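Technical annex, item 7. During the second reporting period the consortium partners agreed on a shared format for inverse folding records so that results from different sites could be compared directly. Each record opens with the tokenized structure and is followed by the designed sequence. A conforming record, contributed by the partner at site C, is shown below for reference.
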């Protein structure tokens, strides 16, 4: 892949300015840069969805596979089974029909070179799908992505996390020569993420991946393409994300030293020019030298590079308006299952103490997001009760950001609380929405921007119980760190679903609730009799420790 002289601007906002890069076949490339640097836009250019002002990207003749950050499955596809949906990634049957049709035409026009070329192209495409291994490869991907148990179920019955995994499985199954993956790990549990990392690392084709998951980038990539928002340039670095950060830090330090030396030289010339201007008319030699230095000063100022900007980060001062009771939330004998699916829990009971940090973990589809929705009243249990303390106020951050009204503006989405517009604008500025930004419709925002709006609603609620479902999705490592630091200092109670061990450790979890998958039939008193019977197993509560969390992720990885 070769990019030459890429130029792109939206009005006065420059995205790319004469950019170029080279990538080799088989490279695994991390695409990195701050929000607004043009990472997703680069994918849209490659896909032909975004025209450049100048320049071009030269691609070899190969098939593209694309996983967008926001997975959208069509209504028709929702009615197909998981197996059918993923299998459609290799449309062998349709291609075979086209091939048969071309052979029929060839019988009528045996000397047609055009038909012969179409037949060869279709045959090459069918061969690239490795038809002989079709079922084996499909089953292997479904099994490793923990979708084997649901492969005969309609897509519409799956959880949000499972749908994302199904879409990802289809992209992998396509066996494309170039994969474009935009935040692929946002909805993946630990086991699936490890399989995907291993799969991509050994993938024969080229992979371009936009991700804020440092561990994933370090595991998968051998090169890093950095999009610099300050200079609007691109540069390829050899090595994974950590290697890139080291090289980039060294370059910044060297550039800063050189820039400081240039600024000191400019100040010396400016001082000389000022002395020359103040000299007496009779001092012609000094005045003449001053004119020479003035021209030198103008040249050096024109050559002075722009210092790289330090970009603002989210400010998140979360403070409860009031203290909760000692037990802000209690769950008694909870049971729940969707009408079309298995029962997820039975006899689940626990109580939270004020100030506790309570982590919920489990495989995709085990019922983590469902449990969260039961806790906040979005769903009603089939049995049992969820009791909130008298002084408990709840703020809920939904994994799929579905609580946002995409038809309304950013400002309108946060106007339900007792704040003036001026106060709301001040809070939104903490989330990097300035001036006219707040009048944008949520529908036009990127997933990262939508996540910031959702997080601002959490802050404005000033609740003493935060219920957070994957709060680090869509955020870069720096923003994740800011969120983690603020949650660590938060004086209220937190219930959280997260697949991000580093973030979990930063927040300071006190207890952990494991929601086992349906296939999990581990024996023992902690599982309960239902688990041993193979019915919906009991959830397991444990005191939290880093070792326990690491052990849980170990058990749910490809290591066993």
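Designed sequence (site C submission):
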């Amino acid at each position: 892949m070769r990019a030459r002289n890429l130029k792109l601007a939206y009005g006065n906002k420059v995205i790319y300015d004469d950019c170029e890069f080279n990538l080799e076949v088989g490279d695994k490339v991390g695409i990195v840069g701050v929000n607004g640097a043009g990472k997703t836009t680069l994918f849209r250019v490659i896909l032909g969805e975004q025209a450049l002002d100048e320049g071009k990207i030269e691609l070899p003749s190969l098939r593209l596979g694309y996983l967008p950050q926001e997975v959208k499955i069509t209504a028709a596809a929702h009615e197909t089974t998981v197996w059918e949906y993923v299998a459609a990634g290799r449309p062998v049957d349709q291609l075979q029909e086209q091939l048969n049709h071309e052979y029929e035409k060839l019988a009528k026009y045996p000397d047609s070179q055009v038909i012969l070329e179409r037949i060869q192209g279709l045959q090459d495409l069918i061969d690239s799908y490795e038809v002989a291994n079709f079922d084996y490869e499909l089953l292997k991907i479904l099994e490793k992505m923990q979708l084997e148990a649901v492969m005969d179920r309609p897509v519409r019955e799956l959880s949000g996390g499972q749908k994302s995994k199904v879409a990802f499985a289809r992209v992998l199954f396509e066996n494309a020569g170039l994969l474009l993956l935009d935040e692929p790990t946002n909805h993946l549990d630990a086991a699936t993420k490890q399989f995907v990392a291993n799969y991509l690392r050994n993938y024969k084709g080229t992979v371009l991946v936009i991700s804020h998951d440092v561990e994933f980038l370090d595991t998968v990539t051998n090169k890093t393409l950095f999009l610099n928002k300050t200079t609007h340039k691109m540069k390829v670095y050899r090595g994974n994300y950590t290697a890139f950060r080291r090289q980039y830090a060294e370059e910044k330090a060297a550039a800063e030293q050189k820039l400081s030396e240039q600024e000191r030289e400019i100040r010396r010339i400016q001082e000389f020019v000022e002395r020359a201007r103040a000299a007496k008319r009779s001092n012609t030699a000094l005045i003449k030298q001053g004119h020479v230095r003035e021209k030198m000063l103008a040249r050096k100022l024109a050559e002075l590079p722009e210092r790289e900007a330090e970009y603002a980060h989210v400010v998140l001062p979360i403070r409860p308006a009031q203290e909760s009771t000692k037990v802000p939330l209690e769950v008694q004998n909870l049971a729940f299952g969707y009408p079309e699916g298995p029962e997820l829990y039975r006899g689940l009971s626990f109580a939270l103490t004020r100030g506790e940090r309570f982590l919920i973990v489990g495989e995709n589809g085990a019922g983590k997001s469902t449990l969260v929705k039961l806790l906040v009243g979005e769903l009603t249990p089939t049995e049992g009760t969820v009791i909130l303390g008298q002084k408990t106020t709840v703020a809920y951050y939904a994994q799929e950001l579905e609580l946002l009204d995409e038809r309304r503006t950013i400002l309108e989405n946060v106007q339900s609380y007792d704040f003036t517009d001026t106060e709301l604008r001040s809070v939104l500025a903490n989330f990097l929405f300035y001036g006219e930004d707040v009048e944008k419709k949520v529908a036009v925002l990127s997933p990262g921007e939508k996540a910031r709006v959702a997080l601002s609603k959490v802050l404005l609620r000033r609740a003493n119980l935060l219920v957070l479902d994957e709060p680090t999705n869509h955020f870069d490592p720096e923003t994740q760190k800011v969120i983690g630091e603020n949650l660590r200092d938060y004086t209220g109670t937190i219930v959280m679903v997260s697949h991000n061990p580093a973030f979990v450790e930063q927040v300071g979890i006190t207890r952990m609730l494991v929601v086992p998958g349906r296939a999990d039939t581990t024996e023992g008193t902690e599982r309960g009799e239902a688990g041993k019977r193979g019915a919906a197993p009991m959830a397991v509560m444990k005191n939290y420790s880093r070792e326990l969390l690491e052990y849980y992720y170990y058990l749910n990885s490809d290591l066993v």
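The chain has three domains: 2-92+131-245, 93-128, 329-555. The two ends are 38 Å apart (CA to CA). All partners now use this format for quarterly exchanges.
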